[in-house]
Amino acid sequence: MLGNLINQGRIKSPWVVHFDCGSCNGCDIEVLACLTPLYDIERFGILNIGNPKHADVLLVTGTVNQRNKHVLKNIYDQMPTPKAVIAIGACGCSGGVFREAYNVVGGVDKVIPVDVYVPGCPARPEAIIDGVVAALEKVKKLLGMTA
Amino acid sequence: MTKILLAVLALVAAPILGALITGVDRRITAWLQSRYGPPILQPLYDVLKLLGKQPMLVNTWQALCAYVYLVGAALSVVLLFTGSDLLLIFFVLTIGAVFLVMGALASPSPYSQIGGQRELLQMLAYEPLLILVFASIAMLTGSFKVSAVFELSRPMLYDLPLMFIVLGYALTIKLRKSPFDISASAHAHQELVRGVYTEYSGPYLAMIEIAHWYEVILVLGICALFWSTSFVGMIVLVALTYLAEIIVDNVTARLTWRVMLKSAVGMGLVLTVVNMLWLYAQ
Q: Which residue stretches, if any, does this entry annotate as coiled coil (chain A) (predicted)?
């Protein structure tokens, strides 16, 4: 029974930490727009947390390059399981227009496993919220919850 | 027998009530910021989720510190509900709070270190205030026992109105609400990450959150003592106090620790002296 309650808590309280991996700030502004009264993600229990140790969902924007891939890996490793990763924007998903650049590794999935891809340049706040909801659906299936 | 029942009630009901109060707090805060806000049960969901997360420790000290903080907070609520000694409640509460800081200082993370130092300063600000309030209650009732307050024929608020303001000040500092959210803040100002909570994670953070609910109930319980003659009066007084607290939290900006320390101790002493003079002049 306690397990069921904990699973319900997991679905209803995803805390997100946002990492700018080398984005142009377009997607970052859209991520922060989700916190504004217009979108108010706190009504789904989503909180923007500055600390990977407290977070459940990692939002990554921008391309991964040779310098910051270690930082990205480090942040991912600091998050306690269960956790999910959402790649935001064209750059986060695949490297975007920078994918051919000599210093660019590519999308976020080259370094850490990604659960949900949110495309767009920049991704709209609605799409980002939709991405978090899609990640929760994935978690639900993983936990064997039907409802 | 009634004491055991009261103790069990305190242990079980206090955290649930604390969670609901925190949930209502988040809802009203959202409403004041023209947002919709999370469900009332959101703090419970948060803690359940944290309990199910993988335990990650920087060192074993932190686990001990989280446990002692939880036990200290729970025990002080039990002592309050069973009508024990105010000074004993104060000491037990302090031991818990000191362990929270020790756990934060046990890790070399700069956020946690600064949060720990600031939490010590907050304790330095609210503890004299609480002692002044408890001493005034003792001067009025002639005893440090909580049960002595319930033998008064009229509410303490008539005799100690200024001490209630002092207690409100201590409440804001203890609950780390704006303008005194110096060591850790629940909202989106992230320059300290989560301050004193930064290095606690997963189930240990859940324990600290539960301990915080106990503390909310403890401080509101002490507020309720000021209208000890009727149950409805207690509820109304506590509700009005907490509503004022939420509004102050939303309309003020964060102050520096120097302003906090000076204003808390200075104002606390002046109000206490005035209140005592008035009490004896009557």
A: none
Neighbours of A76 (CB within 10 A): 18
Report the C-alpha gap between A101 and B152 in whole angstroms.
79
pLDDT tens readout for residues B142-167: 889 888 888 888 888 888 889 999 99
Q: What's the length of chain B? A: 282
**What gap in Å lies between CA B118 and CA B196, rounded to an integer?**
8
- Alpha-helical runs (H) found in chain B: 2-32, 42-51, 60-81, 86-105, 110-141, 146-149, 156-159, 161-174, 202-224, 231-251, 257-281
Residues 2-61 of A with CB under 8 A from B: 3, 5-10, 12-13, 15, 35, 37, 40, 42-45, 48-51, 53-54, 56
Q: Give yes or no for a contact between A86 and A132, defined as CB atoms under 8 angstroms apart.
A: yes
Q: Which of B52, B194, B205 sits opposite A10 (nearest CB)?
A: B52
What pLDDT digit, counting tens, does each position of A2-57 carry?
A: 788 888 888 888 888 899 988 889 999 998 898 888 888 888 888 888 888 888 89
Instruction: Give chain A's domains with CATH numbers.
Output: 14-142 (3.40.50.12280)
- Predicted complex ipTM exceeds 0.85: yes
3-state secondary structure B207-249: HHHHHHHHHHHHHHHHHHHHHCCCHHHHHHHHHHHHHHHHHHH
Q: Which of B108, B72, B12 is nearest to B208 (CA)?
A: B72
Please tell me the distance from the alpha carbon of residue B114 to that of residue B104, in angstroms, as a whole number. Answer: 9
Q: What's chain A's length in residues?
A: 147
